[in-house]
Design brief:
This protein is an alpha/beta fold and 245 residues long. Helices cover 40% and strands 20% of the residues. It has a 5-stranded parallel beta sheet with strand order 2-1-3-4-5, sandwiched between helices. A 4-stranded antiparallel beta sheet has the order 6-7-8-9, covered by helices on one side. Strands 10-12-11 form a 3-stranded antiparallel beta sheet. It is elongated. The structure holds calcium ion.
Amino acid sequence: MSSDLAVAQRPLILVVEDERDIAALVRFNLEQEGFAVVTAADGEEGLAAVRQHRPSLLILDLMLPVMPGVEVCRRLRGDSATARLPIVMLTAKAAEVDRVLGLEMGADDYVTKPFSPRELVARVRAVLRRASADAGDRPHAVYAKGRLRIDFDTYEVHLDGKPLVLSLREFELLRFFVQSPNRVFDRLQILDLVWGQDTYVEPRTVDVHVRRLRARIERDDAHPELILTVRGVGYKFNDRALAGC
Ligand code: CA
């Protein structure tokens, strides 16, 4: 492998393909488009090349000697260092596509043989673009306090370490509460801030959703300690009750 800087700065694509003609064709087309390319001729060599060269993307043939593409993919996905390495699969049969993209292999995209090199290059570009957009994401906005953890980007909520399934409205209500703790809001304020001013909903809708949310997050929803009722006014979120288990 050349250590030429000009080469190193181009995105490096590893092509794992035992058919020499195809490997050469793919290499030629990728290089024409400005990519740097390394090739490996079987699955084991491919895994070693991933470790050695740390490619930006892997083009992986499904039918490979020594170690099949399925196994290469499985091992890469199972290793945190390579779990997110973008993989474009080459498959001979359209029937394999579900497996290739599915849980079994988790490839990012595929091309069915025989393929047009131009199409393959387009797929490679698209997958790389997606991968770099993901990598460039800001860190997720997360609320974490005591028993509760909320990821505002993925809408995942964990309470006492266990995933909590909330409806979108329940999620938005919870978001509102944790972002404005220890302040009393009346029902109309909550409606405005969570439902928006455009929608017409009865103030008692707030009560219904508070009840549902309590059922999910309170240890004992008959005696709530997080979403407190302030008699004659509305509700307030008591984030102090989140501390401890
Ligand atoms: Ca093959």
